[in-house]
Amino acid sequence: MTAIGFIGLGNMGAPMAANLVKAGHQVTGYDLVPQAVAALAAAGGRAAASAAEAIAAAEVVITMLPAGPQVREVYLGNAGVLGRAPQGALLIDCSTIDVDTARAVAAAAREAGFDMLDAPVSGGTAGAAAATLTFMVGGEAHAFDRAKPVLSAMGRTIVHTGPAGNGQVVKICNNMLLAISMIGVCEALTLGQKLGLAPQTLFDVVSQSTGQCWALTGYCPVPGPVPSSPANRDYAPGFTAAMMLKDLRLAQQAAGAAAAPTPLGAAAAALYQLFVDSSGGALDFSAIYRFIAKSDTKI
Ligand code: NAD
Questions:
Q1: Rounded to an integer, what distance in angstroms lies between the CA atom of residue 222 and that of residue 202?
Q2: Does residue 79 have its Cβ closer than 6 Å to ligand 1?
Q3: What fold is seen in the domain 3-162?
Q4: 203 Cβ contact partners less than 8 Å away, ≥ 6 residues apart
Q5: CA distance 225 to 199
Q6: What's the CA-to-centroid distance between 279 and ligand 1, angstroms?
């Protein structure tokens, strides 16, 4: 049993914290939203009235926050984690944030005497609920070894990707590739249909051919071929287009800083921006199919 302070009990954090409770850990949680804290208490955790209270006796601190500014505030701000966590506590940020913030906060943590890991996840809310998340972990090897038993209660695949920030690098590279391949699948389905081909026929052939990819065979953006894909439930998320846009922006920001050429990543970001601006943000990211297939879409 490990004493865990958990900050950020939203769509992902709530089921992750509940799985830690189920695994026998003592979880004290805090969120700006009081109902989220109450829900953790109802699931067997402990409610805290502040971040400082949540981590006061923590051996491990886990954060699952929206973006870089919240991570900076929670770790570096007045009464933040670095000023309040017990000596020797292991700090794990599971949020998806920009690489620079991940590396800056990890450096500040090291200076304050803490082991810190960035451990963003893939698998979405379903993976968080089922404890089958993939963790991409950046930081020191000995910190990774300390974290593994705790992360195992929330995920199935836990990979050490190198030093601080590398978990975020893997995450944005994966999601940039996913967005590009989803757009490619949507364009192929649209072209096929406009030339008179049924989506199912295209699916049957391409899923056995060189154009095969997960966006098609695991998450097909048209209803029918893959029964579990969001296209069959009117594109209820899943992983929202707004979240995909957030990750594409992080990728473009990092690509600019590293002078890495990512022309298709830039095009994917521009296309998701258009889709989100046209009120698609709350839909699953595969709903960009509708946007691309609309004959009057000017891209
Ligand atoms: P969310 O908005 O549902 O949850 C974030 C929570 O953090 C909210 O409950 C909010 O009240 C809380 N919060 C914000 N600032 C705080 C502060 N200063 N102190 C305490 N609590 C604070 O978001 P989510 O869907 O749970 O996503 C969390 C992170 O995980 C994001 O970085 C997201 O990109 C990433 N992610 C999400 C998914 C997904 O499918 N939802 C998948 C993979 C990764």
A1: 11
A2: no
A3: Rossmann fold (3.40.50)
A4: 216, 220, 222, 224, 225
A5: 8
A6: 21
State whether the beta carbon of 33 lies less than 6 angstroms from ligand 1: yes
At residue 25, what is the residue type?
Answer: H
What's the pTM? Answer: 0.94
CA of 211 to the centre of ligand 1 (A): 34
Q: Which residues of the chain have pLDDT under 70?
A: 295-299
Annotated domain spans of the chain: 3-162, 169-293
What are the residue numbers of the active site?
Answer: 171
CATH architecture, domain defined by 169-293 = Orthogonal Bundle (1.10)
CA of 35 to the centre of ligand 1 (A): 15
